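Case 377 in the screening queue. Each case pairs one protein sequence with one candidate compound; here the compound is flavin-adenine dinucleotide. For every case the pipeline is the same: read the inputs, emit a complex structure as tokens, and attach any notable structural observations.

Predict complex for case 377.
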Amino acid sequence: MQLFDVAIVGGGPAGSSCAAFCAMAGLKALVLDREKFPREKVCGDCLNPSCWPVLERLTIADPVRDLPHSKLCSVAFIAIEGCQVSLDLPSGPNCEISVKRSLFDDLLLKRSRELGAIVHEQTTVTGLKRNNDWEFETASGQTFRAKILVGADGRNSTVAHLCNLLPRHARERVALQAHIPLPRDFGNRIVLQFLREGYSGQAPVNETQLNLCLVGTPPTISKLRRWAEHQFQLPADQAWRTITPLTRSSVPSVHENLFFIGDAARVVEPFTGEGIYYALRSGELAANAIVKIVRGDDHKSALNEFSRAYAQVYRGRLWINRLARAAVVRPQLGSFFVHAARLNPSMLRLLTTKIVSSNACHSERSAAKRNEVEESR
Ligand SMILES: Cc1cc2nc3c(=O)[nH]c(=O)nc-3n(C[C@H](O)[C@H](O)[C@H](O)COP(=O)(O)OP(=O)(O)OC[C@H]3O[C@@H](n4cnc5c(N)ncnc54)[C@H](O)[C@@H]3O)c2cc1C
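Case 377 output:
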């Protein structure tokens, strides 16, 4: 049985990014995903501007810009009673865009393949064993072996579950998502709409389709669906994709020859549309550490460096996430914010700028600077 340097379970943005960076550095990388790509995903399809530097390093920023997409110029927050406030988003080549996950994820996975990663689609990991190396089994009975294992298999991570690390979660909320015909005059904007039963996110993904997400609780989600059917004149048999949980405790991202990245490690509130960035960047950081470990560099310092850089990615951003969660779990509170922002938009502008500016690029740069200073000591 071939021994891989690294096996990555999950070929979403986290897994593909990790595999691509590992393969780029010459490692024998394996990716296993249970789906056949291209596949859709429950997501708002919005790409935060912080993603661009990682996509540049993967040399796929231009191919991403060539995919059918919408440039998003503004974000409108709508309160329960309909009052709204709109803020402009940064413009330019590194602006926020929306692109279907079927296209984006497929491009990323293809990039990891081009760089030399071995990718098996329609391959579900079902069992794990650890001797010196990792041995794992798939639903079809295949077995694989790798020195290092990466769980990049999303919020309901099988790898975390098989390692007894997956936190229990209450089924507090559930999300529905569909691509529907783009309403005339919708505009190049994101709409975040508070509703009595939860909230809805809307963004055009191309010239003809709108990404529509609904987030509610199990008892209220059917009311939200009826609201959407009425609002967007959808047929009663409209197909919806669904996902839960929307919140859960994090899984420590690093263990002995085992990493968790993206949603498998930490699930963030979808309202702020940052999950893809965290997935891409944590994949890149894990790859940096894995390359050092496989090459025989000091194991401990590689892990410490990863842990520091990983914490830095989230530093100063999680409070926004908590604030967003508070606002969406109690939509009346969210609506109150919209009313308050109409009177004084500076606070909302500050929060939005923090989320959609290339703020993360600044934190990447300051982390790099700090590392340089520490290394030079
Ligand atoms: C309603 C909603 C809206 C969102 N909107 C946005 C947004 O607009 N912008 C944004 O940046 N983020 C958004 N997010 C978050 C974003 O979707 C996630 O953060 C992102 O998909 C995480 O990427 P990942 O690679 O970690 O996991 P995933 O994208 O979930 O990929 C995991 C992969 O693992 C595979 N897999 C799972 N189990 C196994 C197994 N046992 N064996 C093999 N393969 C397996 C799956 O098939 C999948 O391809 C949203 C989330 C929700 C719920």
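Case 377 observations:
- Residues 327 and 337 are 8 Å apart (CA to CA).
- The chain is about 40% helix and 25% strand.
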